[in-house]
Amino acid sequence: MTGFPIYRPRRLRATENLRSMIRETSLSVKDLIFPLFVVPGKNIKTEIETLKGNYQWSVDRVMEAVDEAAALGIPAVLLFGIPSYKDAAGSSAWDDNEPVQMASKAIKAKYPELVVITDACFCEYTTHGHCGVLDAKGDVDNDPTLENLKKLAVSQARCGADIIAPSNMMDGYVAAMRQALDEAGYTNVSIMAYSAKFASAYYGPFRAAADSAPDHGDRKGYQMDPCNSDEALREVALDIEEGADIVMVKPAMAYQDVTRRVHDTFNRPLCVYNVSGEYAMIKAAAEKGWIDEERIVMETMLGFKRAGAKMIITYFALEVAKWLKEEK
Ligand code: PBG
Ligand code: ZN
């Protein structure tokens, strides 16, 4: 043998302190975004059947969940709403008196530092359950939807949102929102774009929770084909060009290659959405006693970080935060 020996990490794995020195990836409570569902009415805390351990909250009680998240050090919540009325346009989405807007105001009043992210889509607000206005054929009509998205963004910003997260994937959605926000004076409000959102069966449990399943057809016209990752990069590039502050890959677990490529290509703040079906699978197997829930969840979260994600939207946020605390 000549020269230096090849690198053998074995010696550096001998003790926990040594392992900690060569660890490349870490998970922190500051990586977590906690999704919350707010509904009309009073004194409501209803467990979501398909998302055990998560609840639909009325605005007067949602602070119970927010208090817990804040106490654990979670930096951000993501608000989804079920409106008190639906119509073909989804006009309750830009009504300042609906649950998302009211909850944003209440949360910012109590926790000015907590980052409030609001979901900007129409499927919860339209009678037909699609993510925008429909044309005569029953397909989503891109440009009129953009006009509504502008009103929605300004309403959410007015009610305190720090980051608006448009999940409907219309063409030009980021630029339209950015322009509307700037014109209304909300230049400090950021946009988190669902840039690489795939048409996925993993959203099933969410649609039950948010009452947002389409009544006809599917979302393949505006969500991406799971076969494509080059296309995902083009979508991300477009959203960045239009002014997205944060880009997202969704779902997370089956698309970690996309996360890695987006990270390496763009080096922008990157979020992954650990979606409802991913949560439900782990919960169900854990309930059966087939897996060690804590270890599986923590390993999964680390996988997202290793793939290049900076932020993780997860229904496990409270549990992960508690487990991280116990580790110390
Ligand atoms: C709606 C929306 C969906 C999710 C977030 N926003 C579902 C969909 O596109 O049908 C899914 C979240 C999850 O599954 O946890 N635009
Ligand atoms: Zn939608």
Provide a descriptive summary of the structure in words.
It is built from eleven helices and ten strands. With 328 residues, the chain is of the alpha/beta class. Helix 3 links the parallel strand 4 (76-81) and strand 5 (115-120). It is globular. The model has no long low-confidence stretch (mean pLDDT 94). Residues 121, 123, 131, 167-168 line the site of zinc ion (ZN).
Helix content: 25-40%
Q: Find the structural class using helix and strand composition.
A: alpha/beta
Side-by-side strand order of the widest sheet? 1-4-5-6-7-8-9-10
Order of helices and strands: HEEEHEHEHEHEHHEHEHHEH
Blueprint (SSEs and pairs):
Elements: H1 16-22, E1 32-39, E2 45-47, E3 55-58, H2 62-72, E4 76-81, H3 99-110, E5 115-120, H4 142-158, E6 163-166, H5 173-183, E7 190-197, H6 204-210, H7 230-242, E8 246-250, H8 256-266, E9 270-274, H9 276-287, H10 293-307, E10 311-314, H11 317-327
Parallel strand pairs: 1-3, 1-4, 1-10, 4-5, 5-6, 6-7, 7-8, 8-9, 9-10
Antiparallel strand pairs: 2-3
Q: Can you summarize this structure?
A:
With 328 residues, the chain is of the alpha/beta class. It has helices spanning 16-22, 62-72, 99-110, 142-158, 173-183, 204-210, 230-242, 256-266, 276-287, 293-307, 317-327, and strands spanning 32-39, 45-47, 55-58, 76-81, 115-120, 163-166, 190-197, 246-250, 270-274, 311-314.
